[in-house]
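[job 4471] stage=fold_predict status=RUNNING
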Amino acid sequence: MRALKLLGNAVLWLVAALGLASVLVWGATQAGWIRPLVVISGSMEPGIMTGDLLIDRPRPTSELQVGDVASIYSEVTRNLVTHRVVGIEPAADGRWEIRMQGDANDSPDGGVYVVGDTVWQPAWQISGGGVVLTTLTRPSVAVPLGVALLSLLGLSLLPASPPRRPTDEPRDDEYGADERRADGHSDAERRADERGADERSSVPSLRDASDASGEPPRPVAVPR
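[job 4471] inference complete, writing structure tokens
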């Protein structure tokens, strides 16, 4: 039980840390500071592998250069595409026209990406992080894992068992009661017997008197 409680406490701290991290990531995503992306294709291998987790940050389009990697929304796939920039030109309406190509692809992407003042660019890459995130969010994994975590948390919240109190020493009256039950006599009867024994021992017998005087005891006439 103690080991389970320790495990539950460790899980409690782990869940708390993950919860705090999730809240921070969610808040940063909603604020537009970052955007997590899971790589679902191998078009950028071996630099960016399938299943990696990318954390993108916004970057001014004017600072983007050929050779940089950017994540731009595609009208074809209707998703963000993370490829390498192979061409960038300002458009007449103040926007930018960008051409990209995957490192593992033989030709550039079809069409031109038209973007505004900012684009998303990978700032951090977590190898295999996308696989872990995708696996944990599956219902077949998330539900049993959640039940197990709740069980461990419940064990960690159980109150600790109170320490055992030492057995009290038996009192004198308990000893007396045990003795009375053992020999069938009360304390008053025992004390009376002891006093009688003391009185009998204090009266010298005829033999004791003979031994003290050196003479045999005289017979005592008993009236009839």
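[job 4471] summary: The longest strand covers residues 79-90.
[job 4471] exit 0
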